[in-house]
Amino acid sequence: MHHDDLKHAAELMKKMLDNFANNPEKIIDLFAEDAVIEFPYAPGEAYGFPKRIEGRAAILKYAKGLQSALRDYKINPLSDWGCYSLSGSKKFLFEYTGDAITVPDNKPYHQDIHAFVEVHHGKITYFEEYWDGFYAMMVFGAITVKSA
């Protein structure tokens, strides 16, 4: 794996994440037509958090939907990321943080995130993101936690 491949993949990811919730139309060309996004720790559709999204049209629809839930979504600077190539492949591991404000109740939202990504021919073909689904459900009101 060449260092330039990791650098290109990291820059592609940063561009995608910077625009994912804020300007979804700007991300769609960064994905392959048959790209897949998976959120293994997401609670699932019953709570409004899908575990899998297939194809560019579905990815765009999902990203546009985030605008009704989050605003001012920001990813930490690329220089602060953990970036790793997985041996002998076009797969990468990235560690980053995301911050936003929830809509409509203006709560701060923060996640420490790990993502596995595959890039082929300059396009994201697979994006598997790990974040705290329990925390997301609390912040967005899908569940309430009673104090002891």
From TrEMBL:
InterPro entries per record: NTF2-like_dom_sf (IPR032710), SnoaL-like (IPR037401)
SUPFAM superfamilies listed in its UniProt record: NTF2-like
Pfam families in alphabetical order: SnoaL_2
Domain SnoaL-like: 21-126
Superkingdom, natural source: Bacteria
Entry protein name: Nuclear transport factor 2 family protein
Source organism per UniProt: Serratia proteamaculans
